[in-house]
Amino acid sequence: MTDKLTVSVLGTGIMGAAMARNLVRAGHTVRAWNRSRDKAEPLTADGAHVVDTPAEAVEGADVVLTMLYDGPAVLDVMRQAAPALRAGTAWVQSTTAGIEAVGELADFAREKGLVFYDVPVLGTRQPAEAGQLLVLAAGPSDGREAVKPVFDAVGARTVWTGEDGAAGSATRLKLVANSWVLSVTNATGEVLALAKALDVEPQSFFDAIAGGPLDMGYLRAKAGLILNDQLSPAAFAVGTAAKDARLIVEAGERHGLRLDVATASAERFARAAAQGHADEDMAAAYFASFDEKDANTEG
């Protein structure tokens, strides 16, 4: 197979659109579809071909890449695409769908003769736009050369976790990593909320931990979004974080674990979304500490 591929990108939200642009920049032919076409339309300026249906997007594609909201959404879209899917096509499934859903999607791939790759990514808007995502991948080694050009276009590094995409080893690693990210995000919001309530200048906290093991670039970055009222556009939205947190809690429950912090994180993201912050950066979970949606963010 040539290194220049025809890639179908199904789902052009924050991550999918950035991945599509980087695929075009790498010289691949990209057919993009999104449930709301207006969100995909800007990709035409980058050289992508925006189409009206999933079936149009996947027709003749070498690789199909899905980056949608959740597992049920992926299955629904792939069923719409089914009449145009070719047996032997590589399916790069990058939606954070959860362990159970990965099995269902892999079953669909088997039914249609697709080569299934479980490929969640780590990163948000900025690394996605820069083509610097961390690609977590599981799938058959004898087909990896077919998908490598796609991974190289969207990511800085690929970590292979297994030979069987259906086993969901990449998704399992993604859930573990996300459990840390979402917990730290919520801890950042609570630190700033408590500082506000106790009349502590946030900079005093940052000065106290500066340079030590408790200091983190991520903490400072997310705190800066809150303190400087820069929650839009989102790098990773509250609504999506709430979905991922639920998947983490469900995965723990299925394996006999009680994940108290993850459960609290899911509740905080859901509360912030209900307050009207679903489309803002996940740092906006900060507002879940307050009764009022428009809580003053100044420390």
Description:
The protein has helices at residues 14-25, 37-40, 54-58, 71-81, 99-112, 125-129, 144-154, 169-197, 202-209, 217-227, 238-254, 260-277; strands at 6-10, 29-33, 49-50, 63-66, 90-93, 115-118, 121-122, 133-138, 155-162. α8 (169-197) packs across α10, α8 packs across α11 (238-254) and α8 crosses α12. The chain is globular and about 60 Å long. The chain contains 12 helices and 9 strands. 48% of the residues lie in helices and 13% in strands. The longest helix has 29 residues, at 169-197. By secondary structure, it is α/β, with parallel strands linked by helices.
Strand content: 5-15%
One letter per element, helices H and strands E, the order comes to EHEHEHEHEHEEHEHEHHHHH
Mean pLDDT across all residues, rounded?
A: 96
Using the alpha-carbon principal axes, give the shape. Answer: globular
Helical residues, percent: 40-55%
- Structural class from helices and strands? alpha/beta
Radius of gyration: 20 Å
Low-confidence stretches: none
The number of strands is: 9
Count the DSSP helices.
12
Tell me the span between the first and last alpha carbons.
57 Å
Biggest sheet: strand arrangement = 3-2-1-4-5-6
Main beta sheet: 6 strands, parallel
